[in-house]
Every structure is written in structure tokens, then in C-alpha cells.
Amino acid sequence: MSDAPADAKTVDQLHEIIDDTGGAESKLDKEKDAAAIDYENKHKNSQQSMEVRIRSPFRSYYDGIAFSISGENATGPFDILPRHHNFISLLNACELVVRSPKGDEKIQIGGGLMHVKADQVLVFLDV
């Protein structure tokens, strides 16, 4: 007979108890890690972007995805980034700079109108 009390647990039984109680915690941790990895994979190597269209009545200067656009209005130079608040402004004669996956594209303008809403930027030139 053993000298151990009746309620004493063996080492293996204690490991099972620890695994069982820690299992829920580690399962939650695994789910959190999986969600973080899933989020990271979706957003890895992809910056936030917005849809940009720059047009005049007879020509399309730019139509595609961009990471930012820079211009100038009566207040001075400004930048538009993804998730920018709704915005409308008259543009001064300036050089619009569109930063896209293909690189920077510079467009010399004589003035125009810019409208920003829900990650869509519309620029109307020669109006």
C-alpha cells in the first residue's frame, strides 16, 4: 500500500489537470493568434489605398489606386491620405502628385476642383 493520502494525485494526473485548465486558455490564445495572423496576412505588404480619378472634359489624366495625393489650394499645400474626412476644395495652379504602386505621377494643372469622400478622390480640371 501507498503512504499517499487518498486525495493525492500522481504527477501524470496533475499534468492532465493543468493541461485541461490551461487548455481553454491556450485555445483562446491560439484563436487570438490565428485572428492576428489572418489580419496581418490580409494587410501585409498592402498599404491603405484610395481610388483616384483625375479628369478634364476631354482627357483622363489618372484613374486608379493611390496611397496619397498632394496638391495646393488657397490655404497652401496639402495631402490627402486614405480614410481622409469628406473634403472639397478649389485647386490652385500647381503640380498634383499621385503616389501609387507604380511610383509617383506628377500632373501639372492650371486649377480645378477636388472632391474626397469614402476613399474616393475625384479631381476635375479645366472647369
Brief summary:
By secondary structure, the chain is α+β, with helices and mostly antiparallel strands.
Mean pLDDT, rounded to whole units? Answer: 82
Tell me the quaternary state. Answer: single chain
The domain tally reads: 2
Order of helices and strands: HEEEEEEEEE
Q: In percent terms, what proportion of residues is strand?
A: 35-45%
Strand order of the biggest β-sheet: 2-1-9-8-5
Head-to-tail CA distance between termini: 99 Å
What is the tally of helical segments?
1
Number of strands: 9
- For the record, what is the CATH homologous superfamily label of the largest domain? F0F1 ATP synthase delta/epsilon subunit, N-terminal
Judging by the overall fold, what is the CATH architecture of the largest domain?
Sandwich
Descriptive terms for the model:
single chain, 127 residues, alpha+beta, ATP Synthase, domain 1, 2 domains, 5-stranded mixed sheet, 4-stranded antiparallel sheet, 1 helix
Overview of the structural elements:
With 127 residues, the chain is of the alpha+beta class. The protein folds into 2 domains: 9-46; 50-125, Sandwich (ATP Synthase, domain 1), CATH 2.60.15. The protein is built from 1 helix and 9 strands; from the N terminus they run αβββββββββ. It has a 5-stranded mixed sheet with strand order 2-1-9-8-5, with no helix packed on it. A 4-stranded antiparallel sheet has the order 4-3-6-7, with no helix packed on it. The radius of gyration is 29 Å and the shape is elongated. The relative contact order is 0.16.
